[in-house]
Amino acid sequence: MPQIKAIFFDQDGVIIDTEKDGHRVAFNEMFKEFGYDFQWDVNKYHELLETSGGKERMRVYFNEVGIFPGESEEEETALLLKLHKRKTEIFIGLIESGKLPLRTGVRRLMQEALAHNLILGVCTTANERSANAIARGMLKDIDFEFVLAGDIVSKKKPDPEIYLLALERTGLRPDECIVIEDSRNGMLAAKEAGLFIVATTNIYTENEDLSESDIVVTSLGDPDGKKGVLKQADEKLEYDGVLKVEQLIKYFS
User: Is 182 among the catalytic positions?
Assistant: First the structure.
């Protein structure tokens, strides 16, 4: 019988509820600085989240509204890199200002995992700078084995490449690892890699089809704070609004 040895965390929407009040706000501030006359509202950004990766989202939208008439692919890529670099600086500023708190239960679950000698890693399509600002800054008390971010892989989620790389880094089997995800793209990537999946929903993913996850909750929950709601799991999971590492080890082993 396998024993759980690692937990891999997605970042955006899992560790911090970054999408609506973080990345979207940073994109809009950057667009304003560069003189673009459009903004991404909550609904438009929800639509764009179907594409993984910030540069990729901009490419989709810019092609949609005709920002790239007659430019070569190299010129398009250079512009996207320039814009995304500035957007990342704005986003990191938001993180460092403390305006984007951790999601409920994240630090607690990580601390519990370390107490059980589990390996912790971050697997995200977010920019490497922003990922490290969170993992090595806001969560500097947490000992992560690795932070895989940005363009470290050539294919974004739902491709499983980033989770396959995590398995390679740890030398573990898929049935020894749990992924904490929030979106369908992330779930599909983890599923294809053969990993166990816990999904924690947010405003952008609460209506996505996450049925291929093993457990779905609205929040990881805290004993003295906000509790989560269980949306999907086998009957053997005893859930009181707080998902604990000890429970997960027992559930998946």
Answer: no
**Residue 239: how many other CB atoms lie within 10 Å:** 17
Q: How far is CA 105 from the centre of its chain?
A: 15
* Residue 184 amino acid letter: R
* Residue-level pLDDT, tens digit, the chain, 253 residues: 579 999 999 999 999 988 888 999 999 999 999 999 999 999 999 999 889 889 999 999 999 998 877 778 898 999 999 999 999 999 989 988 878 889 999 999 999 999 999 999 999 988 888 899 899 999 999 999 999 998 899 998 999 999 999 999 999 999 999 999 999 999 999 999 999 999 999 988 999 999 999 999 999 999 999 999 999 999 889 899 999 999 999 999 8
Domain 6-17+101-252 fold is Rossmann fold (3.40.50)
Give domain limits for the chain. Answer: 6-17+101-252, 19-96
- The active-site residue out of 10, 17, 182, 214 is 10
SS3 93: helix
Establish whether the linkage from the previous residue to 158 is cis, with ω within 30° of 0: yes
Architecture of domain 19-96: Orthogonal Bundle (1.10)
Please give the Cα distance from 78 to 70 (Å, whole number).
Answer: 14
Strands 146-148 and 177-181: unpaired
Q: Largest alpha-carbon pair distance within the chain? A: 58
- The residues that bridge with 198 in the sheet, in sequence order, are 180, 215
Q: Is 41 a catalytic residue?
A: no
